Amino acid sequence: MPELPEVEALALDLQGRLTDRAIVRVDLANFSALKTFDPPVSALEGTLVDGVTRHGKFLDVSASGLHLVMHLARAGWVRWRDQVPELPPRPGGKSPLAARITLDDGSGLDVTEAGTRKSLALYVVRSPADVPGIVSLGPDPLDDAFTVDRFREILADAGRGQVKGVLRHQGTIAGIGNAYSDEILHAARMSPFKPASSLTETEVQTLYDAVRTTLGAAVARSRGLAASELKGEKKSHLAVHAQAGKPCPVCGDTVREVSFADSSLQYCPTCQTGGKPLADRRTSKFLK
Question: Which CATH code fits 148-272?
Answer without folding.
Answer: 1.10.8.50
